[in-house]
Amino acid sequence: MLMQRVGLRLCVGMLVGALAAGCYPGGIETVSQTDLVATFFQKGVDFTANKTFDMPDSIVDIGVAAGATSTLKHQYDTQILAKIQAGLVALGYTRVDATATRPDVIVVVSGITVDNYSAWVGYPWWGYWGWWGGWPAGYGAGSTWYYPWSPVVVTGYTSGSLFINMIDPDLATPQPTQAFSIWAAAINGMLEGTDAEILARINTNIDQVFAQSPYLRTQ
Q: What residue ranges define each of the domains in the chain, with the CATH number in brackets?
């Protein structure tokens, strides 16, 4: 099941089990049948003004925020990040080295290894991402996310889910040092299943992320 583009302040709190039961009354045979792709964006943002991007070269397990030990399958980081980069390049973006050239947007990718994770909460993120050398001045310990679609909180994401955030460091936020997320995507449970299933779903689900986000085009 591949869904759905969501605009500012629209609720997307859906439990995959309920969705799967409705779509597959005969029973679920593969993990991919419970896939859910959701995208969020800030209405009014001129995405055509953004031409360049950079992103850290690792996927961070944010499930440790819930006290879990990190068990994220990092063997897929290279394929996932390459697929995301290819999707952005296809939309007209050029990757730059943020340590030398300030990018228009920064893209970070994270995953979870716990069930019922509450996404889109403005928690402090520097402890997860501060190691990356591409952040512009102004961010630091105590920096939080600013999600314009909040207070939407989705608690139905399961272990193995993947999240993509696009941050515009030039937009003003309500509080100093917040990182403004202008677009985000969530793929429920993508990193669960066999190696063959996961590799196939990386291509299918990330393609869907960009298919339902045509407004990201730079021209």
A: 5-216 (3.30.160.670)
